[in-house]
Amino acid sequence: MSEELDIIIDSVEESMKKAIHFFEGELVKIRAGKASPDMLNGIMAEYYGAPTPISQIANINILDARTLSIQPWEKNMIAPIERAILMANIGVTPQNDGVQIRLFLPPLTEERRRELVKRAAAEGEQAKVTIRNNRRDGIEGIKKLQKDGLSEDTAKDAEKTIQEATDKHINLVDKLLAAKEKEMMTV
Question: Which of 7, 33, 150, 180 lies in disulfide reach of 145, CB 3.0 to 4.6 Å?
Fold first, then answer.
């Protein structure tokens, strides 16, 4: 019985860690004013009929704090990459010189910074919802074990462990969000 309980607790904590990892990935995609190749993560360009991440069909370099350079390995890929960046609506218009694509990141306005903070907060809320859903699933699993003969004290201890893990992960989301907000609001 305790082996099943350990499996439930470990599974809940692993799911919460995955939610945090996903949230960190989403925060990286939100531009904070500096050029970063991570801005292009998740943008897919059409490569011989298959959607392919830009990082797999081109070199992405930072030229300066506000400029990214994308140099496709094949010249015929410039147009599909440019189209994919425009479709992704990341707030930047690609400029193509026939050999490479440059992304000039304009300085963020106060209004745009606030929009980005709201977007980051929405991602944070989504991460918290996922963590809470994991807690709910874990507690339901414990209650099923309790019906199958798990003692009430052991069940309460396990629920307490899951609640502590939930609190720890939600606090981590808040800390990551505060750090990103500070980064975005710094001019």
Answer: 150
Q: Give the pLDDT of the chain (187 residues) as one tens digit per residue.
A: 578 888 888 999 999 999 999 998 888 777 666 777 877 888 888 888 888 888 888 888 888 878 889 899 888 888 888 888 888 877 788 888 888 889 888 777 888 888 888 888 999 999 999 999 999 999 999 888 888 888 888 889 989 999 999 999 999 999 999 988 888 777 6
d(CA 134, CA 62): 39
In a 3-state reduction of DSSP, which class is residue 12? helix
The total number of structural domains that make up the chain: 2
Given 86, 104, 122, the domain boundary residue is 104
CA dihedral 160, 163, 169, 174 (to 10 degrees): -130
Instruction: For residue 100, give the DSSP letter.
Output: -
Residue type, 45: A
Give the domain extent around 55.
37-104
Measured distance CA(11)–CA(29) in Å, rounded: 28
Beta bridge partners of 145: none
